[in-house]
Amino acid sequence: MNDEEARTRLLDAAEALFYAEGIQAVGMDRIRTESGIPLKRLYRLYPAKEALVTAYLERRDRRWMASLSAATRGQADPVGAVFEWLAEWFSEPDFRGCAFLNAYGELGAGPAGVLDVVRRHKAELRALLAGIAGPGREGLAEQLLLLVEGATVVAALEPGPGAAVRAREAAYVLVRADGTG
């Protein structure tokens, strides 16, 4: 097995465990066991748990943002598409909230690499929403961000599409009030 395959197996195991159980609750030995990668190789590829957590979040960010971007691209109603995408995500059986907020909630301003990934993810989400809101509508983009984040937190406590549906209704009120739709 080459290093790329080993990284993939480690990241798959880390993502499943960290997202389901929390970062602090899962040790490197557990990741070794779940991935089938020897501990020595794990530490060669990820010299510290922070490096593995950072890599897990970076990979999750790329996949998450690509999926949301694809769901909104070219849509006649991109605001609605955001919340429809969220409703589907919130309905997944293993949904446990936002991995980035969960990581920040557990680790706070602790590991700099992890905090950087969390901040970058939120900046990317803000930029995507700004593109949807349109030029000169930064206030609307910020309001949409608050709705997305709030709905995600509520859905972590009450899984299912309900929070996304209610947030979409609020988003439409904001869009109409802003004069964009």
Main beta sheet, described?
Answer: none
Q: Quickly count the domains.
A: 2
Which series of helices and strands comes N to C?
A: HHHHHHHHH
Spatial extent as radius of gyration: 18 Å
User: What overall geometry do the principal axes of the alpha carbons give?
Assistant: elongated
Structural class based on helices, strands and sheet pairing? mainly alpha
Number of helices: 9
Low-confidence stretches: none
Q: Which fold name corresponds to the CATH topology of the largest domain?
A: Tetracycline Repressor, domain 2
**Mean of pLDDT:** 95
Strand content: under 5%
Describe, in plain words, how this protein is organized in 3D.
The protein is 77% helix and 0% strand. The chain is an all-alpha fold. Helix 5 packs parallel to helix 8 (138-157), helix 6 runs antiparallel to helix 7 and helix 8 runs antiparallel to helix 9. The chain has helices spanning 3-21, 28-35, 39-45, 49-72, 78-90, 99-107, 112-133, 138-157, 162-178. The chain has 9 helices and no strands. The termini are far apart. The protein folds into 2 domains: 1-47, Homeodomain-like (Arc Repressor Mutant, subunit A, Orthogonal Bundle), CATH 1.10.10.60; 57-178, Tetracycline Repressor, domain 2, CATH 1.10.357.10.
Please render the helix and strand layout as text.
Elements: H1 3-21, H2 28-35, H3 39-45, H4 49-72, H5 78-90, H6 99-107, H7 112-133, H8 138-157, H9 162-178
Helix pairs in contact: 1-2, 1-4, 4-7, 5-8, 5-9, 6-7, 7-8, 8-9
